[in-house]
Amino acid sequence: MAQDWNDKLESAQKMLPLIGNLHRQSNVVVSVFGRLLIDVTDIDIVKAHRYSRLANDRELTPADTLPILEALTSLNLGTASIDLGRLAAKFAEQGGDLDAFLKEELAEVIGTATERPSKDIVLYGFGRIGRLLARILISREATYGGARLRAIVVRKKSADDIIKRASLLRRDSVHGAFRGTITVDEENDVIWANGTKIQMIYANDPASIDYTAYGINDAILVDNTGVWRNREGLSQHLQSKGIERVVLTAPGKGDLRNVVYGINHNDITDEDTIVTAASCTTNGITPSLKVLNDHYGIVYGHVETVHSFTNDQNLIDNFHKGARRGRAAGLNMVLTETGAAKAVAKALPELEGRLTGNAIRVPTPDVSMAVLNLTLEKEVTREEVNHLMDQVALHSDLRQQISYIASPEVVSSDFVGSTHAGIVDGLATIANGNHLVLYVWYDNEFGYSNQVIRIVEHLAGARPKVLPERIPSAEL
């Protein structure tokens, strides 16, 4: 075992400079069955290959993917996200000449552009979601380019406002320290984060900001304040110079298009100058509900969410305009309502009127669970449902939205930092005839924020080409 470990480390160490060169020279990132190899160590590479045992007939090692990585450096690749694991597995099955195989598999990105046009992004609001969006945007800009965070708009609350906000970006009690360096230019109201210049703009009126004065043009603005949720309110942003489109990080009202990335993002048209990213719970459950409806048909169901408390609840008992939310969030389970079940139909119209829902807020700061209690058109077994969700998580076009786990020891804190919209807990699945109960974990902060960024990148034309292409979930 010791020699095997050392052999794996040796191959992984050979991979590190190749991964860096591909990224710098060709804007290519690589993964192993979806596990991205970005800012990794040799041990991270070995761990990513260990994961391959779940997706492949045998566990791959760095020695299996190293020859593929070496061959990629001579292919004149353009911007792409390339899965070394899937390529290695397919080549092992198919055989032949490796260079010819890779040229056929990666033809779409050979000789294409390595740089993509930059798109300005503005964050309006800088609370829990706003700061996570900033972290992800900074990381993604360094990874792919394209979507570039240019400014953050807030109301000034103190003389040292920018210092406090930079500190909140630097340190997070739930998600840990910022990966990199942050410095503040107080004189010019600028935060520098890993070389990214972020202009802090202080304003009270969303309609009267001249973003072009800061060199910001045709920007996508992400409103994460939740103050305005209808077309009339959010249209104020479009009155400001320099803003082209608006994304709301909450369920929209009226005729606004509610988008769950991976489900209906391709329905967005050029006329949709305002779109919403729905809620964390809607994002957490909609992908799994789509898969189940596509394969088994959902007659009706009830969604019960066990949700971490949020900032709109009181820390101790005090007046709150909402029912029950005035009671101490850290001391109580608080029964409340959720519109997430009904909101699913805005992304999946075929489920209109088939779902009800409630929520229980609990004394944890992050990570929630949705219990999907469903009546199906077909009878199912626990084994077949779990196998389906596992295959979707490993191989389908919903791989970024759905993850699957079958461990008897996991608890909510294990999912802090998950980039997936939801994680199916296979050991909790219950099936009895056409009655199914599915348990789905979701990081209601970070997982949701990643879904928002996927919409932003889609609007910005900054989503990388993923190769080999993933299988549509309905075809599994």
Overview features:
12 helices; eight-stranded mixed beta sheet; Dihydrodipicolinate Reductase, domain 2; 476 residues; alpha/beta
Protein architecture, described:
The chain folds into three domains: about 1-110, no CATH class; about 120-280 and about 450-475, NAD(P)-binding Rossmann-like Domain (Rossmann fold, 3-Layer(aba) Sandwich), CATH 3.40.50.720; about 280-445, Dihydrodipicolinate Reductase, domain 2. Helix content is about 30%, strand content about 25%. The protein has twelve helices and 21 strands. The strands form three sheets. The protein has a nine-stranded mixed sheet, with helices on both faces. Strands 13, 14, 15, 16, 17, 18, 19 and 20 form an eight-stranded mixed sheet that branches. GO terms for molecular function: NAD binding; oxidoreductase activity, acting on the aldehyde or oxo group of donors, NAD or NADP as acceptor.
Sequence-ordered SSE layout with sheet pairings:
Blueprint: H1 2-26, E1 28-32, E2 35-36, H2 42-50, H3 62-72, E3 80-83, H4 84-94, H5 98-105, E4 119-124, H6 128-143, E5 147-154, H7 161-170, E6 182-185, E7 190-193, E8 196-202, E9 219-223, H8 231-238, E10 243-248, E11 257-258, E12 274-276, H9 280-296, E13 298-308, E14 334-336, H10 340-347, E15 355-362, E16 368-376, H11 382-395, E17 402-405, E18 422-425, E19 430-432, E20 435-442, H12 446-460, E21 466-467
Helix pairs in contact: 1-2, 1-3, 3-4, 6-12, 9-10, 9-12
